[in-house]
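Render this sequence as a predicted structure.
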Amino acid sequence: MSDLHARHRSVLPDWLALYYEDPIEITHGEGRHVWDSDGNKYLDFFGGILTTMTAHALPEVTKAVSEQAGRILHSSTLYLNRQMVELAERIAQLSGIPDARVFFTTSGTEANDTALLLATTHRRSNTILAMRNSYHGRSFSAVGITGNRGWSPTSLSPLQTLYVHGGVRTRGPYASLSDADFIAACVDDLKDLLGHTRPPAALIAEPIQGVGGFTSGPDGLYAAFREVLAERGILWIADEVQTGWGRTGDHFWGWQAHGQNGPPDILTFAKGIGNGSSIGGVVARAEIMNCLDSNSISTFGGTQITMAAGLANLTYLLEHDLQGNARRVGGLLMERLRAVAAQVPHVREVRGRGLMLGVELVKPGTDRADPDAAAAVLEATRAGGLLIGKGGGHNTSALRIAPPLSLTVAEAEEGAAILESALRSL
């Protein structure tokens, strides 16, 4: 065990997860690569949990942060903040939500916590609908709506949470149905559930479930849900912490695959917009955002240095069409991985969209999860110079692949070759 690992274990919580039997310290990065403290170079296919969205050490972001740091780092929301206003204006316009207001937080957890505060206050209800296999953060309220046992350390909650079918297409009671019949069955289940409870405040859903292993329902599922919800005044919260900013390739926001009945009432974001800076936030219609009847501030949400990073990062993303790159390179990577999967009995499914791809592993010849295989692949890819993630829920195990959106075709091929070797070694 390294000295740093020993010090980590002696002073930090036991439940603070670390990857790898011999954890690594990442010291610096450039583009799509990072280096550890031993000088080993890795192709990064996880981006600090989908957070390094454009590139490591992106010069435009580094310059913006450095220049802002030389002026002022922070003043809080009690003072006017030009950078915060400018980024809010851009996000409001991009969100697709009419008469949008934006509130900045420091993380996705805090963004979802704020969305729950807004929805429950606006609706005068503490009942929340959430998806099975979901993950929405680490706070007390976010844990209370997380439908993934592995990331839910307590059943105590300030909310009454009811879980809905539909977040996982290829498992569960409706897996054998066609997409249209799957959606119809999930809608019928939702209607039945609503007949047994007091009116909920909102449905919160990840368009593609992140920690759950990059699973999703068919396109149009949440549009069909929205029709039922809107009839009853129930709000739709789209948790875009992992799916936002063009990562899915086909859409700028994940909700747009389900947008036939309009945008969500509330949208939450984080991770990629800061490219490593601590930015989260909520977008909502003015009537919802302004429903609070007491003062509130954010000490660190929207602080100048993070807003400078976010503005530079978003500008780079749009000017270089990284959404289009995610669609093109992600499509090639998906094809490559599916070709490999067809020859590896441990792989049950390759799924996802854009540069948000999941590889579900099972014990060969069965439909049972194989977490040992997932751990082995993580070790093997690391040894080969590739960093990936893992996830899953309810007896599933999946590899998570989510590189920076500037990934090149050559890098995609390189990473796929390393992953193929690791899968074949099982």
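Summary. The first strand starts at residue 26 and ends at 30. The radius of gyration is 21 Å.
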